[in-house]
Amino acid sequence: MRKIHIFDTTLRDGEQSPGVNLNTREKVEIAHQLEKLGVDRMEAGFPAASPGDLAAVNAVARAVKNVSVVGLARSREGDIDAVREALQGAADPCLHIFLATSPIHRQYKLKMEKHQVLEAAQSALRYAKKYFSKIEFSLEDAGRTEPDFRAEMVAMAIREGAYVVNIPDTVGYLNPAEYGAIFRHLKETVPGIEKVQLSAHCHDDLGMATANTLAAILNGADQIEGTINGIGERAGNTAIEEIAMALETRADYFGAKTGLVLGEIARTSRLVSKLTGMNVPGNKAIVGANAFAHESGIHQDGMLKEKTTYEIMSPQTVGFKESKLVLGKHSGRHAFREQLLEMGYTLEDEQLNAAFARFKDLADKKKEITDDDLLALLEERLADA
Ligand code: KIV
Ligand code: ZN
Question: Ligand 1 pocket check: which of 17, 138, 233 to mutate, most ligand atoms within 8 Å of Cβ?
Answer without folding.
Answer: 138
